[in-house]
Design goal:
- This protein is of the alpha+beta class and 100 residues long.
- 25% of the residues lie in helices and 24% in strands.
- It has 3 helices and 4 strands, in the order ααββαββ.
- It is extended.
- The mean pLDDT is 85.
Amino acid sequence: MFFFFELFMRSVTKNYFANREFTFTLKDDVYVRYLSFADHKELKAELVRKSPHKIDIGAVYNAKPKDQKTYKPGTFQPSEKELVFDIDMTDYDEVRTCCR
């Protein structure tokens, strides 16, 4: 998993990463949104500390997501996001007619 984040870090600029939203799903389906990190070392430390069951990488905002409550309503906005399709093939076992 950390290999992925090392590759991810090589392709982003300093401010770009700090404004990226991360979400963690923790034990007992606790969902934590608006996480952001200054750099990959801070992200790695939080991954080790919290050991999330699932990680989602969200949009890039016009400010740091962890500070989103400090902005006036309507001023904290996503500025860009990649188009991602996450298809879990096992979700379609009941309707699939081939390739089991």
